């Protein structure tokens, strides 16, 4: 079968001939919108769960009138003791906070094969090696199927243990704290224990419903991302952006129906998201079929009959996407630690967990959009790397860094300063003062993390996969784990939880400095060479 000259000419015109800044922006801006739409899938679910579940899942239904009356009397008699407020909105937000790392892991796995396939596809097209580009498409498809099914099994198998880890020993810690004070008799302690047990058992049930549902549907999410990245690689980014908008409207509509009328609790959010992912996947496949009929694509569906199951071939694709996977996984590790350790840092730990349940969806939505801009920059950079043009590779890195800086400043001023009250009120947050501070801190972190991602994109698009992987874990693992435990110790010693909450700013800044110095040295060294040897990593 021949190759589509329309697709080849379109890629060369948009990725190589066009002014580099226009080329980057023409891909980055639609990618940012696409990222917002991707993040909106989860954001809309979590927001609508917080809004609608409390309408039919009342405190009286959860705890019963007798237990609730006794508990409220204890809270009134011992007002100085920091006890949980009987509020369903906080319960749902805490469930959302527990689910956040799993959604990050699914998004990370979606990039594992998709990014590697897109980078190789662009590089081979830049080298005019169209046969290898087509083979990359076939290999990536079957590798993606294998990985997505494996993740589905892992999520379903580890769901219970994961939620229990995040919950920590909240009930035991609170009872021990009250016993040390010596203010409550055994009956009152039993009332508090029963109240907390029902609360966190319900948090566990809600989290479990959502995680199991999106875990089963993660195959749709991963394949949807895979096809989207390859359509973008063929310079058709506007179309997939429109698909994402349509699917989000569909997702939000289903959320409203399932939550408001079917009263399906957190299962509704997961089910609506899976339906949205499936619709997006179907639309992308139909679009590729349409382009194939017009002889305007080299993503030929009939080629997928050539089943390829070769671990060496799979590794070639996975190692290029591994850095994106590790980056998101490491961010999930950091998010999990932050939510889990806050319990030990302050006696208001449960309240802060619910605050993170409101803040994390907002930050994830905005940060996903920023990360998506790397898809555009990587598409241009990988194509020009294949074509041997180092100057355009360097410009891609510089342009992406400026986009990350501009986006981080914009969202901080808009969402962290101007609209923080409105955004947090959407999630029914009552302690707005603390929530505003947590939101602003997490939005500040987006700037240095974004610069770290720009450095990672450079290494990824030029096939320096191991350097890209180190960049990917620099923030969330290499710098985060030792410093966050140190921050926990200092915060507990000084009785100042804000030292712990602010620690990610320092961690992200250190990671950004290390990664960008490394990338600048790498660029300076290679831009001196007259000819780029692209075959050495093929």
Derived structural class:
mainly alpha
Q: Could you tell me the mean pLDDT?
A: 85
| Distance between the first and last residues' Cα | 24 Å
- The arrangement of helices and strands along the chain is HHHHHHHHHHHHHHHHHH
Low-confidence stretches: 530-538
Proportion of β residues? under 5%
Q: Please outline the major beta sheet.
A: none
What is the radius of gyration? 24 Å
Describe the structure using short key phrases.
globular; 538 residues; mainly alpha; disordered C terminus; single chain
Structure description:
The chain is built from 18 helices and no strands. Helix content is 85%, strand content 0%. Helix 13 packs parallel to helix 16 (432-461). With 538 residues, it is mainly alpha-helical. The longest helix is centred in the N-terminal third of the chain and has 39 residues, at 88-126.
């Amino acid at each position: 079968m021949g190759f589509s000259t329309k697709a080849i000419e379109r890629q060369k015109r948009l990725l190589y001939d066009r002014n580099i800044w226009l080329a980057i922006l023409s891909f980055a801006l639609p990618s940012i919108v696409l990222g917002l739409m991707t993040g909106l899938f989860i954001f809309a679910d979590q927001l609508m769960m917080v809004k609608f579940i409390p309408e039919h899942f009342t405190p009286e239904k959860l705890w019963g009138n007798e237990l609730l009356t006794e508990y409220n009397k204890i809270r009134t008699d011992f007002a100085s003791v920091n006890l949980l407020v009987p509020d369903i909105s906080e319960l749902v937000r805490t469930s959302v906070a527990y689910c956040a790392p799993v959604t990050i892991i699914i998004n990370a796995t979606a990039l594992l094969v998709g990014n590697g396939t897109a980078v190789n596809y662009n590089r081979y097209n830049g080298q005019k090696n169209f046969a290898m580009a087509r083979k990359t498409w076939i290999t990536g498809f079957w590798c993606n199927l294998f990985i997505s099914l494996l993740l589905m099994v892992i999520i379903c198998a580890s769901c219970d243990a994961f939620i229990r880890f995040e919950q920590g020993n909240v009930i035991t810690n609170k009872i021990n704290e009250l016993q040390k004070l010596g203010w409550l008799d055994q009956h009152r302690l039993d009332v508090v224990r029963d109240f907390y047990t029902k609360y966190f058992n319900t948090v566990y049930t809600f989290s479990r419903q959502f995680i199991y549902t999106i875990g089963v549907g993660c195959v749709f999410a991963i394949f949807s991302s895979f096809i989207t990245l390859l359509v973008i690689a063929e310079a058709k980014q506007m179309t997939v952006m429109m698909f994402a908008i349509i699917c989000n409207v569909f997702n939000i509509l289903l959320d409203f129906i399932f939550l408001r009328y079917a009263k399906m609790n957190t299962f509704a959010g997961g089910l609506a998201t899976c339906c949205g992912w499936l619709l997006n996947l179907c639309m992308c496949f139909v679009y590729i079929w349409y382009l194939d009929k017009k002889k305007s694509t080299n993503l030929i569906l009939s080629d997928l009959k050539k089943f390829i199951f070769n671990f060496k071939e799979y590794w070639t694709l996975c190692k290029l996407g591994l850095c994106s996977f590790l980056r998101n996984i490491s961010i999930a590790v950091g998010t999990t630690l932050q939510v889990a350790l806050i319990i030990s840092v302050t006696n208001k730990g449960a309240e802060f967990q619910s605050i993170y349940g409101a803040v994390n969806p907002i930050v994830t939505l905005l940060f996903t959009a920023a990360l998506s801009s790397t898809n555009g920059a990587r598409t241009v950079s990988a194509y020009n790397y294949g074509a041997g043009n180092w100057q355009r590779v360097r410009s891609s890195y510089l342009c992406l860094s400026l986009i990350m800086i501009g986006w981080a400043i914009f969202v901080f001023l808009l969402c962290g300063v101007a609209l923080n009250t409105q955004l947090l009120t959407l999630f029914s947050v009552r302690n707005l003062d603390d929530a505003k501070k947590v939101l602003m801190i997490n939005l500040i972190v987006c700037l240095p993390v974004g610069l770290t991602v720009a450095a990672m994109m450079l290494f990824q698009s030029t096939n320096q996969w191991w350097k890209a992987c180190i960049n990917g874990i620099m923030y969330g693992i290499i710098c985060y784990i030792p410093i966050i435990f140190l921050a926990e110790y200092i915060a507990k010693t000084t009785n100042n939880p804000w030292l712990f909450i602010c620690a990610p700013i320092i961690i992200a800044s250190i990671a950004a400095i290390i990664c960008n110095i490394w990338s600048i040295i790498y660029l300076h060294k290679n831009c001196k060479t007259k000819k780029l040897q692209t075959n050495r990593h093929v």
